[in-house]
Amino acid sequence: MQSGEIHIIEILQKNSEVKSIHLTEMMLAKWPEELFDHKIEEVYLEYVVCPVSCLIKLFKINSIKRLGLIGIAETEEDLDEEVGLYELPAEIGQLQDLEELDISENSLVTLPDTLQNLHKLVKLNLGWNNFQPDSEFHFPNTIQDLDLSSNGLTKIPQEVFELPHLENLYLQHCQIKSSPSFKDLESLRSLDLAYNKMGSIEFDESLNLHSLVLKGCELKQIPKSLYPMTSLQRLNLEDNHITDVPADIGHLSELIEINISRNDIMRIHQDIDKLQQLHVLNVDRNDLRSIPKSLGKLQKLTRLTISNNKIQELPSALYELTNLVTLNANWNVLSQIYPGIGKMKQLKHLNLHSCKLLFCTDDINELHNLEELTLSHNWLKKIPKMDQLQNLRHLSLSGLHELEKPEEELKKLFQLHSVKEISLSYWKINFIPSELKELKNLKRINLGRIPELQKNAAFWREEFDPIYLWF
Predict the structure, then answer these.
(1) DSSP per residue over 194-241, as a string?
(2) What is the pLDDT of residues 392-446, one digit of tens each?
(3) What letters, b where the CB count within 10 A reaches 16 and e where it falls short, cover 252-262?
(4) Is 0.85 surpassed by the pTM of this model?
(5) Residue 6 belongs to a domain
(6) Cβ atoms < 10 Å from Cβ of 94
(7) Which residues of 376-403 are buried (b: 16+ CB within 10 A; e: fewer)?
C-alpha cells in the first residue's frame, strides 16, 4: 500500500501553495511537517489506514473548510474487513471554519459533543455507519444538509427535528416503518426515504418539498397526501407496487421530473397533461398496454421512457412532442412506427429495440438531429431511409433476421458520413460493401454471429483497417 506521507511530500514539492489534499487507499502514519505551513481548506481521506493520533494532529489545521474521513481504518486488517472508524476524536471541535464533513462508511455509533462547536457546519454525511444517538446528543443547528442513510435507524432521531435550517435530509436504506411527521422542518425542501419498507406514508399539508424520493417503499398507491404538495418538482416512486396513476397527479403542476418505473402500473390518467412543467417522465418496466394521447400536450417534455411495457401503439398525438430529445420505447409490442414521427425535430436518441416491429416509416429520415438510433431485434423486412441523418453517431441494426434483401438494405448506410459505430450482428450477409470504408468517421462495425464473415475474419479486418470489425 502506497505511503500517504510520501505522496503528500511530492505534492508539496510541486506546488508552492497547496489548499487541497486527497488520499485514496493509502497508509498514513504521520503528516509531513511542511503541510502545516500551508493554508489547507480541503482534506479527503478515502479508505486510508490512519491512526487516531494522526487525525488529532490533522484537526489542528484550523483553516479546513471541507473534510472527508470516509472508510477510515486504524489497521490494514480493518480496511480489508471494511471496519471503519469507531470513534471520532473530540478534537474535531477545533475546526471552527468547517463547513462540510463527510464521515460516511465508518463504524460510528455516536459523535462527540464537541461537534456542536462547529458553528459553520452546513453539510454532514453520516451515511453507512451504526449511528444511534443518545438523548444528550445534539447536531449543530446550522446544518442544512444531513445524510443518515444506512444506519439501521428504526425512527428518525428527535434531534433532527430541532434543526431549523435543514433543507436536505437523506434516510435511504434505514428500517423506518412508521410514517414520521416532518411538519416542524419548515425549511425542508428535499427528502429521500428510499428503501424504507413503510407500505404507506402520510405527509403534512404544510410540507413544502421540492424533491421527494420514495423508491422501494412497498407502496401500493401514490400517497394521497402528496397531491397538496404543489411545489414538488421531482418525484421518484420507482420500485414499488403502484398499479395506477390517477387524475389527482394533475395537482402536482410544478413537477419537472417523475420516475414511476418498476411498478405494476396498468393505467396513466389523461390528466397527466396538466403537468405542463414536466421535462422527464419514466414509466419503464410496468404493465402498460397503452399511453394516453394527452401526453402529446406536454410540450416541455425532453425525455420519455416507456420501455419494457406491453404498449401496442405509439399514438400519433405523441409526435406533437416537438421538444423531445430522448425517446426510449424498447421492449414493447408496437409492430409499426407510423408516419408523423418526423415532427419530433429535436430528437437525438431513439430506442426501438425488441418492439416486434414489422414496419418503420421513412419519416425517421426527417429526424435531422438524431445521434443514436436503435432498431435492433425487430421483424423488419426493410430498414427506413437514413441518408438525411447527417448527425447520426451510433446505429444499431443487429438481429434483423427478416430482412428480405439485406445486401440491398446495406446501401442505405452509405451516406451516413457522421456515423462512428454500426451494429449488424446476426445479419444474413456474406460480404461487407467497400463503400462503408468511405465513411470517414466510422470507427467500429459489429458483425457478431455472422458465420459467413467469421470464416474470413482476418481478411475482412485487414481489408477495413483501421476500422475495427468485431466478430
Answers:
(1) TT---S-----TT---SEEE-TTS--SS--GGGTT-TT--EEE--SS-
(2) 999 999 999 999 999 999 999 999 999 999 999 999 999 999 999 999 999 999 9
(3) bebbbbbbbbb
(4) yes
(5) yes
(6) 17
(7) bbbebebbbebebbeebbbbbbbbbeeb
Residues of the chain with pLDDT under 50: none
Number of domains present in the structure of the chain: 1
Residue 346 maps to a domain: no
Q: What is the largest CA-CA distance in the chain?
A: 78
Cα–Cα distance measured from residue 154 to residue 192, given in angstroms and rounded to the nearest whole number: 15
Is 326 inside any structural domain? no
Helix, strand and coil content of the chain, in percent to the nearest 5, comes to 20, 15, 60
Contact 331, 352 (CB under 8 A): no
Q: Give CA–CA dist 289/303, Å, rounded.
A: 20
CATH code at position 104: 3.80.10.10
Count of CB atoms situated within 10 Å of the CB of 337: 24
Residue 349: what are its φ and ψ, rounded to 5°? -130, 120
DSSP single-letter state for residue 21: E
State CA 292 to chain mean position distance: 27
CA distance 154 to 445: 53
Q: Which helix (H) or strand (E) holds 58?
A: helix 52-58
Asked if 31 and 57 touch (Cβ cutoff 8 Å), the reply is yes
DSSP 27: B
Amino acid at 103: I
Task: Name every residue whose Cβ is closer than 8 Å to that of residue 249 and which is 6 or more positions away in sequence.
Answer: 222, 227, 269, 271, 272, 274, 275
- Between the CA of residue 228 and those of 168, 182, 251, 253, 464, what are the distances in Å? 20, 15, 7, 10, 62
Strands 468-470 and 444-446: parallel
Residue 309 in any domain: the answer is: no
The domain in which residue 133 lies consists of 1-138
Instruction: Give the whole-angstrom CA distance, residue 315 versus residue 333.
Output: 13
CA-nearest of 330, 437, 435, 441 to 393 is 441
Q: How confident is the model at residue 102, as a pLDDT?
A: 98
